[in-house]
Amino acid sequence: MSEPVILALTAGEPAGIGPELCLQLALEPRQAGIVVVASEALLAERARMLGLEVELHPWQPGAPPQMESGHLSVWPVEGCENLAAGKTNPANSRYVLKTLKIAAHACLNGDVDGMVTAPVHKGVINEAGIAFSGHTEFLQELCGVERVVMMLATDELRVALVTTHLPLRDVADAITPERLTQVTRILDADLRTFFGIAEPRILVAGLNPHAGEGGHLGREEIEVIEPTLEKLRREGINLTGPLPADTLFTPHWLDNADAVLAMYHDQGLPVLKFQGFGRAVNITLGLPIVRTSVDHGTALDLAGTGKADAGSLHTAIRVGEHMARCRKAAKQESKS
Ligand SMILES: NC(=O)C1=CN([C@@H]2O[C@H](COP(=O)(O)OP(=O)(O)OC[C@H]3O[C@@H](n4cnc5c(N)ncnc54)[C@H](O)[C@@H]3O)[C@@H](O)[C@H]2O)C=CC1
Ligand SMILES: NCC(=O)COP(=O)(O)O
């Protein structure tokens, strides 16, 4: 059996289902070494509330994480002011961001092999006066890279996005040749690196209805998308499109493709979630670290009930572990 990888798992919004999903995980034997980055008091309180018998063990870099059922390694983080389930409190926002910074820095300096994130509440963080669009953008900035790509995936479907958390009004202007070029190259490269696809076949959606209907329903396809795809094809990237988004998600196209590139969040993700909500993973491509996440949000309506399903968290950990192993292997290969 190969050496276990270590993943830092941030517990996310304290009022949401993140803390109890981390505890549910602790009741199972694990393949990957999991270290939950969270307030110990929060985890202890949620375990008490749900009657879960989980022993928390403070963890320090260099130590082996707990792998046995009923035991959980915790990277303790101070500053969680409110432990209540189901009721958000902006006073917790700095604590939430601290957990993300700790996990990301631990990845960057090699203390852990990757990070997995439970959901945060973007609105509550903004209510605390902190501009925050999502983990994706936050980690892009923290890692100092110009572009990253959000991709959600099930075993059957991968959907990546050209734009992420933008008001719809701003989307068309954000789809520039530069952004489309960067996103497509990252998607192509990471499908090769992490998914073992020798020549990824990518379907690209148009922006407008019927992919612009020859310019009669919008000109972004003609002026931006088609010329950029043509340039990228000359680099050797296998691209089909721009295709009308309403017919792209059908077996005719999907059966011969490895990923879909959608122009914006709600063009691609509703289809993915309809197909596999609860077992999909959200991956940030293009980072110098491994980051995966669940496909769902904070589910405040379920927090503290013990009814939240951990299926997506299992997928996020499985995929995070796989990606971390790919990274480790590539590093070792480059050394030898
Ligand atoms: N990766 C992240 O940090 C993400 C965070 N969010 C944030 O979550 C907040 C709430 O978003 P919503 O749109 O309400 O979506 P949501 O995913 O929290 O909830 C939608 C519905 O799905 C159910 N649900 C969600 N996760 C579930 C699980 N594990 N098991 C069983 N049922 C589950 C909820 O009870 C609810 O009925 C927003 O503030 C959003 O920003 C949303 C998506 C991802
Ligand atoms: N709908 C997916 C989502 O909003 C996740 O965002 P992020 O926090 O992973 O950037």
Throw out a few tags for this protein.
single chain, alpha/beta, Isopropylmalate Dehydrogenase, 41% helix
Write up what this structure looks like.
The chain is of the alpha/beta class and 336 residues long. The chain has two domains: 194 residues, Isopropylmalate Dehydrogenase (3-Layer(aba) Sandwich), CATH 3.40.718.10; 129 residues, 3-Layer(aba) Sandwich (Isopropylmalate Dehydrogenase), CATH 3.40.718. Helix content is 41%, strand content 17%. A twelve-stranded mixed beta sheet has the order 3-4-2-1-5-12-11-6-7-10-8-9, with helices on both faces. Helix 8 links the parallel strand 8 and strand 9. Helix 1 packs across helix 2 and helix 3 packs across helix 5. The protein is globular, with a radius of gyration of 20 Å. 46% of the residues are buried. The site of 1,4-dihydronicotinamide adenine dinucleotide has 17 residues, from helix 4.
